[in-house]
């Protein structure tokens, strides 16, 4: 939930405007002090965002997003972590896992968000297509009024000599909930909308493919008409003879659809998909269950005030501002890249081990610095920043691992050495590490070349590759803590994963896992037990192809799959899930843990742990 101190400032239309009197437009202000409405409007200089409520919704539903956006602007960007960030896929315009134009997320926010909200009188837009058309037409007028208001405010400050060098906004970001998201898309293709007045749309639990309840044939026709116009909008304009005329009408429009997941019973995820409507180069759909720092499913209305999601959305929209202009980036790929970095985790969409790792496709060599021979290369990719460096002197002593699986159960300040040539044999050419330790501050991983066999004149320490920042953030729950010192401590769930393929480790002899010393906190219970499990494994040993007939049959009898204790950490299960209304439940559990047989006589053996 979010605490807020809302004030809704009415925005007046000109007397010549024929906007319906039953609707209204408001500007949100966060703060408990009384303000002068005219003076506040006169100071407008941020990024305009227009919230559009859904079926039976209120303009006041903007308050959680607007309040958190104000706090985010004042507090600054989220704390920097050193997990690997998500990238655009080749279908989305990504280039070999590189950031678009070298863009990085901002270290501070240069422009605040000015939240406007349209009052649609709580109309039931999910029941009548005629209502949708009226609302879309009014939203177009609101967009024009907002842009005009910024110009009026700037001219007013200019007359008083208080104007600053700011770039006036040329577009408005639209944020729509439920049917409001569809209204936003309908407004963008309205013939009366000014060119480039809308370039970014974010929808929350909004149907795009079909209406949730098509009570009238006209409702389905209207959806098809809007989607058909959107598909045309991304096509290059040509003459009747096929000659180039102009770029696509919607070439600068990015659309992001956020789904509430399986707890949203009103609008199902497949209705919220953008497939066939918006090309991958201009938008994507993401479920709240896979959103970074959220990992939760939520009901249809809850998506508007779920604090984890609201905070992440607020920081995402603030990150869209170009520091040079104070307004959203004009480059479509940069805006899409920001959405991808802020909302997605870098978890691979598919663990297809037979294809070359994306990590190995990028160059890991950069020009050397502070050496005489400039033709050499020093490996500096994915290194932790110097401000989180911990000295090797803090490592008590090295451990040399002799098995393909290595386990870390505490922050012991040790460095573990794994011989890639020895442990990565018999097809075990891939390495995976799963841990709840934070990259750089809790654990660091390096690849070392073999001493004495390199043609490079650089010392070994100059040819080490740090791969710590290739760790990927994965969904995890809160870490448990001890109630009191000395009490039983539970394992914190894993929060990161590292994958290395044969191409990533080629040319290196050793892999080291360095664990930071356990922090001591005086007067407080120690944190939950730290954990990390690494393994060299053969991906083919973890593959299972389940027959499409197994799930229906399992309704009468369970289908069990068992793996040995030393099974690969990565399990690749293939099964059919499109089974109509038949429910399929997939569960994973351990058959047992602990020592089953101690090898001692019964009178000397302790208790056997057979817990699951």
Key phrases:
single chain; 612 residues; alpha/beta; eight-stranded mixed β-sheet; five-stranded mixed β-sheet; 10 helices
Structure description:
With 612 residues, the protein is α/β, with parallel strands linked by helices. Helix content is 18%, strand content 17%. It is built from 10 helices and 24 strands. The protein has helices spanning 37-42, 63-75, 129-159, 179-188, 217-233, 307-318, 332-343, 420-423, 502-505, 550-553, and strands at residues 6-10, 24-30, 47-52, 113-119, 173-177, 200-204, 237-238, 244-246, 254-259, 283-287, 366-367, 377-378, 398-400, 405-408, 415-419, 430-435, 443-448, 465-466, 472-473, 496-500, 510-515, 532-537, 543-545, 572-574. The protein has an 8-stranded mixed β-sheet with strand order 1-2-4-3-5-6-9-10, with helices on both faces. A hairpin with a 5-residue loop joins strand 7 (237-238) and strand 8. Helix 2 packs across helix 6 (307-318). The protein is globular, with a radius of gyration of 28 Å. The relative contact order is 0.10. Residues 353-381, 520-526 and 593-612 have low confidence and may be disordered.
């Amino acid at each position: 939930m979010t605490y807020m101190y809302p004030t809704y400032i009415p925005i007046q239309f000109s007397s010549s405007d024929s906007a319906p009197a039953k609707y209204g437009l408001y500007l949100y202000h966060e703060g408990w002090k009384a303000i002068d409405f005219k003076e506040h409007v006169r100071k407008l200089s941020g990024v305009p965002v227009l919230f559009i409520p859904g079926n039976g919704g209120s303009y006041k539903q903007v308050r959680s997003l607007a309040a958190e956006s104000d706090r985010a602007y004042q507090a600054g960007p989220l704390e920097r972590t050193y997990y690997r960030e998500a990238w655009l896929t080749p279908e989305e315009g990504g280039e070999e896992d590189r950031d678009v134009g070298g863009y990085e997320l901002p270290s501070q926010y240069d422009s605040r968000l000015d939240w406007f909200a349209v009052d649609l009188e709580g109309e039931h837009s999910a029941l009548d297509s005629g209502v949708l058309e009226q609302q879309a037409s009014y939203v177009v007028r609101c967009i024009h009024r907002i842009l005009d208001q910024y110009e009026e405010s700037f001219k007013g400050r200019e007359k008083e000599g208080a104007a600053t060098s700011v770039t006036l906004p040329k577009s408005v970001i639209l944020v729509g909930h439920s049917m409001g998201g569809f209204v936003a898309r309908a407004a963008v293709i309205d013939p009366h909308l000014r060119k480039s007045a809308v370039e970014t749309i974010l929808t929350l639990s909004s149907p795009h493919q079909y209406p949730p309840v098509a009570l009238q044939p006209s409702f389905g026709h209207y959806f098809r008409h809007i989607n058909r116009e959107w598909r045309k909008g991304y096509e290059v304009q040509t003459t009747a003879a096929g000659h180039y005329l102009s770029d696509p009408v919607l070439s600068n429009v990015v659309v992001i659809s956020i789904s509430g997941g399986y707890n949203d019973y009103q609008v199902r995820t497949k209705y919220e998909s953008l497939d066939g409507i918006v090309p991958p180069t201009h938008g994507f759909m993401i479920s709240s269950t896979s959103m970074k720092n959220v990992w939760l499913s939520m009901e249809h209305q809850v998506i508007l005030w779920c604090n984890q999601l609201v905070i992440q959305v607020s920081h995402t929209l603030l990150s869209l501002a170009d520091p040079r202009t104070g307004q959203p980036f004009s480059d479509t790929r940069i805006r899409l890249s920001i959405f991808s970095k802020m909302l997605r985790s870098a978890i691979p969409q598919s663990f297809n081990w037979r294809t070359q790792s994306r990590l190995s496709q990028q160059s890991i060599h950069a020009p050397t610095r502070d050496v005489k021979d400039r033709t050499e290369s020093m490996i500096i990719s994915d290194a932790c920043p110097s401000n989180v460096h911990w000295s090797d002197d803090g490592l008590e002593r090295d451990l040399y691992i002799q098995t393909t699986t290595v386990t870390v159960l505490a922050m012991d300040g040790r460095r573990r050495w794994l011989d890639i040539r020895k442990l990565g044999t018999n097809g075990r050419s891939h390495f995976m590490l799963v841990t709840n330790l934070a990259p750089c501050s809790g654990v660091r991983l390096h690849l070392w070349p073999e001493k004495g066999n390199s043609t490079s004149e650089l010392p070994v320490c100059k040819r080490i590759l740090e791969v710590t920042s290739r760790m990927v953030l994965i969904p995890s729950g809160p870490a448990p803590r001890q109630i009191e010192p000395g009490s039983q401590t539970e394992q914190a769930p894993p929060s990161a994963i590292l994958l290395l393929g044969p191409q990533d480790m080629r040319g290196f002899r050793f892999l080291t896992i360095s664990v930071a010393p356990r922090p001591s906190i005086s007067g407080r219970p120690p944190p939950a037990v730290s954990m990390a499990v690494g393994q060299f494994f053969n991906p083919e040993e973890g593959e299972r192809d389940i027959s499409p007939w197994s799930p229906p049959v399992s309704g009468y009898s369970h289908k069990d799959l068992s793996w040995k204790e030393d099974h690969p950490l990565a399990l690749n299960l293939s099964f059919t899930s499109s089974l109509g209304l038949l429910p399929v439940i997939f569960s994973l559990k351990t058959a047992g843990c602990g020592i089953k047989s101690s090898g001692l006589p019964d009178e000397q053996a302790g208790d056997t742990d057979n817990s699951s």
